[in-house]
Amino acid sequence: MNGRSLSKLQSALAVAVGVLGLLGLVLPRSAETGLSDTPFLTTFAVLAVFSLRRFRYPLPVFFDGCLTLAAGIALPMSLVVIDKGAVGFWSLTAAGWLSAWLFVERLTASGRGGRWASLAVPVLFGVTLLVLWEVVTRGLNVPQVLLPPPSAIGARFAASLPILWADFQQTFLKSVLIGYALGCGSAFLVAILIDRSPFLQRGLLPVGNLISALPIIGIAPIMVMWFGFDWPSKAAVVVVMTFFPMLVNTVAGLAEAGRMERDLMRTYAAGYWQTLVKLRLPAAAPFIFNALKINSTLALIGAIVAEFFGTPIVGMGFRISTEVGRMNVDMVWAEIAVAAMAGSAFFGAVALIERAVTFWHPSNRA
Amino acid sequence: MDIVMPNGLDPDPTPVIRARNLDLTFQTGDGPVRALSDVTLDIGKGDFVSFIGPSGCGKTTLLRVIADLEQPTGGSITVNGVSPEQARLKRAYGYVFQAAGLYPWRTIARNVALPLEIMGYSKAEQRDRVARTLDLVNLTGFENKFPWQLSGGMQQRASIARALAFDADILLMDEPFGALDEIVRDHLNEQLLQLWARTTKTIAFVTHSIPEAVYLSTKIVVMSPRPGRVTDVIDSTLPRERPLDIRETPEFLEIAHRVREGLRAGHSYEDV
Amino acid sequence: MAGGRTLPILVVVASIMAVWYVATVWLNTPWQLGVYEREGRAWTASDLVVDTMAQERPVLPAPHQVAIEIWQTTVEKKITSKRSLVFHAWITLSATLLGFLIGTALGIALAVAIVHNRATDRSVMPWVIASQTIPILAIAPMIIVVLNAVGLSGLLPKALISTYLSFFPVVVGMVKGLRAPEAIQLDLMRTYSASTAQVFWKLRWPNSMPYLFASMKVAVAISLVGAIVGELPTGAVAGLGARLLAGSYYGQTIQIWSALITAAALAAVLVSLVGLANTYVLRRMGARP
To answer: Quick one: which of C277, C219, C280, C267 has its CA closest to C240?
Structure first.
């Protein structure tokens, strides 16, 4: 494929972009003034109509990129002028969305760009989503309570940095990290302890697997009663939540070393601990890291939800539940953004360490 | 035929491996399986002994019994005059498996150093021995590669280096070249013979290739299945110095013929 | 194998029970000592053991106290009663199941789109994976409150949270499953010049069944968690989550534990039902038992 001939899907998208652009050009774009004068939007509409020429003279992928960029600028910019969108505005929004889709389709089909494209495509998807979110919430005057536009969330985020930082400290740096370290660490030790008893393993593994599937989060009120309102009760919830996935995975991982490798250690007359350190723990590393990754998410969930059951007046979960009560939804979203960033960063950090430690594993070699 | 001993006398006064009436029965879900039956065998110091036979004849099991990886259910076996377990604890064995079994998280040099670490050699000694054994198997220059970056033949050579790194006087090799193509295999066979000549180790070698067995061995043990037993022991008349083209000499072909006869006599091909 | 596992499991469960009983006595002792002191009466060790297991609001209720509470609130109460645990469990279960079904259906649909369209794969998949690292449960209270504000309340908002949570494991599992066929199997289909639909129904779909069930097990468990957490923020009056919350407000530890155990039992039943369905389907497909 030379990248210029379009597939069926691409042709359909291209036609839709052109037709919707034409509609946006002729139909009223604002609810108040009829045909309002928004030069950005008009430019985009003209470009979209112009793109229909591709059926005569092929247009490069680059053109679709420009078209998408134009839509990304024109739509949010015109919201400053337009208070509430009309038919024409929405057909242009649809045209913008479809042009982004077309661009991504052609970009992936052309296979060019290599690593750069594999990063750009998801980013483009995310930005498209944000722009659509902004345009739809503001263009339709969606009530703030239901879904605030990203710009409002961003503004609130920037304005409440000290509060967000205090919450982050309380929930993430205290409850999550301490609970995570204790939970994963103790499970690892227990796994080593029961390693020499196949009997205990056969009993503990099914029980541990079952408990991993239970709604452990429900112990939060009990932990709050036992350990008080402050972070220790949340850390306790995190300990219990992270314990069983780690235990089950470590035990499974320790069983992973192949029979041949074990026989080899036996011919060297290697002792139990030598076999453990030199063979079985390295072989178990992929399993252990799998649990560490699962647990990084579980720990954050546990700490936040546990705070719904009572906290001092700080913490991410506390903030979410109180601000929801006050209908300050933009603050809730800002807190969720913090949680999302913290969660991704935590997960990403564990994944990076995993890559460095288990570089030899087939899944990391490519 | 030095192991048929109606009078119960030892032909070799100090065999390295001495097995008498070995029996091994596995208990499986489908009932007991007799893997070894009445195996009597002597292997002398410096011998290169091949075990040959179809799959299921117990040749690998026998090797594992020698290495104390399986316990016999009958008969007796001594290695260097002591039990296999004591020999193992004295680190008498270098074992090479069918697959290289190198640890993917260790470089080639550190893989070879693995037994040395376990046996508590000093760092300097480890470095010395790793360099020496890697040179022995022609892998100098690959110390810092990871196993998956090497070809199958090179990996297998590294695993042989690992078995040679410490001073085990018995090398147990379980179809070490079985997974390699014939060209690489010929090459490694030749190298193995040179290595054996230089180190004077006792080698027990499991194979299912007749030419390989005849080319390498001073003694060929023919086995047959159900139950696994020794049907013939052939002492090679070939000289110790063996170029690859010795395989076209009439002497070679005669021994190969005898091995084939032995396998047939054991009815080993009937129900394979 | 099954015979070899029963005994160890029993031993482990029995020792958990034993630890629980010991902990009951140990944790409830301080309060009980206070009672004795106020009443000014002498007590023996056996008194202490008996009394610590019979407190009204113990720090840790004994297993049998929880069992009695569960018995009383399930069998002895009418199902329609607000104090019946069956009633509350059903409220939570219905939201769980509704959300799980929608989530699984959506998850499969998105996985099919991802496997068959490279643009979807490259643009959506990174976000699906990234979204797994985000504590989505944190959004639960907001969804509930927001939907309440718009006039949606009761079953649907909770089911939506369950949908959201069960959706992701199914997408990830099914993408893996639909891509599981080996290259030679796909090449074979190609030599038959099979259509995309034929490749899907004859190869990809049957091949993905183990993956589907594995992710459904995760999905149904997390659906239940979603439904329970969904009951927390609004001070909901019904459901297992509401029982947990009410119990924690009024210090009714026995009520908390009985709700917790019920939720655990529910999760275990749901997961094993998916497991049974898995065995049944795979056996129908001719897999070795």
So the answer is: C267
| Residue-wise DSSP of B180-228 | S-HHHHHHHHHHHHHHHHHH--EEEEEES-HHHHHHH-SEEEEEETTTT
pLDDT at C101 exceeding the cut of 90: yes
Q: Which residues contact B21 (CB under 8 A, 6 or more apart)?
A: B38, B39, B40, B74, B75, B76
Lookup result for tokens 């007590």: C43
Residue B18, beta-bridge partner list:
B42, B78
Mean pLDDT of A99-123: 79
Write the DSSP symbol of residue B231: E
The single-letter code of the amino acid at C178 is L
Contact B103 A261 (CB under 8 A): yes
Q: What is the pLDDT of residue B7?
A: 42
pTM: 0.79
Q: How many domains does chain B contain in total?
A: 1
The arithmetic mean of pLDDT across residues C213-233, rounded, is 85
- The verdict on C14 touching A (C-beta cutoff 8 Å) is no
Distance CA C145, CA C236 (A): 11
Is C260 near chain A, with CB under 8 Å? yes
What would the two tokens of residue C279 be? 């065995």
Give which of B259, C184, C120 is closest to A121, Cα–Cα. Answer: C120
Q: Does A35 touch chain C (CB under 8 A)?
A: no
Q: Where are the domains of chain A?
A: 8-142, 156-365
Domain around B6: 1-92+213-266
Q: Is the predicted pLDDT of residue B177 greater than 90, yes or no?
A: no
pLDDT at residue B8 greater than cutoff 60:
no
Any idea where the domains of chain C sit in the sequence? 2-56, 85-284
Cβ contact B164:B157 at 8 Å:
no
As a whole number of angstroms, the distance between CA C199 and CA C194 comes to: 6
User: What is the amino acid identity at position A27?
Assistant: L
Closest CA to B249 of B259, B261, B237: B237
**Residue tagged 């099954």 (tokens):** C2
Q: Could you tell me which residues come within 8 angstroms of residue C109 by beta carbon, excluding any fewer than 6 positions away?
A: none
The rounded mean pLDDT for chain C is 82
3 state SS of A84: coil
- C-beta neighbour count of C269 within 10 angstroms: 12
Which tens digit of pLDDT belongs to each residue from A190-239? 999 888 888 888 888 888 877 877 788 888 888 888 888 888 899 999 99
Mean of pLDDT over chain A: 84
Q: What is the pLDDT of residue A113?
A: 63
Report the C-alpha dihedral over residues C184, C185, C188, C192, rounded to 10 degrees. Answer: -160
Residue A335 Cα, gap to closest chain C Cα (Å): 9
**B68 inside 8 A of chain A by CB:** yes
Residue B115 · residue B166 · CB < 8 Å = yes
Tokens read off for A109: 């089909």
B122, part of any domain: no
Measure in Å the smallest separation between the Cα of B241 and chain A Cα atoms.
Answer: 31
B39 by Cβ neighbours in 10 Å (0-12 / 13-18 / 19+) ranks as buried
- What residues of chain C, 99 to 118, have a C-beta less than 8 Å from chain A? 118
Provide the token pair at B234: 């052939």
Q: What is the pLDDT of residues A40-85, one digit of tens each?
A: 888 888 888 888 888 888 888 888 888 888 888 888 888 777 767 7
* Architecture of the domain defined by C85-284: Orthogonal Bundle (1.10)
Nearest alpha-carbon partner for B51 in B186, B178, B174, B199: B174
Query: Mapping DSSP to helix (H, G, I), strand (E, B) and coil, where does residue C241 land?
Result: helix
**Residue A3 binned pLDDT confidence (cut-offs 50, 70, 90):** very low
Domain A156-365 has CATH 2.170.120.12: no
In a domain, B34, yes or no: yes
Count of beta carbons in the 10 Å neighbourhood of residue B153: 18
- Residue A256's pLDDT is 82
Q: C157, C107, C105: which is closest to C132 by C-alpha?
A: C107
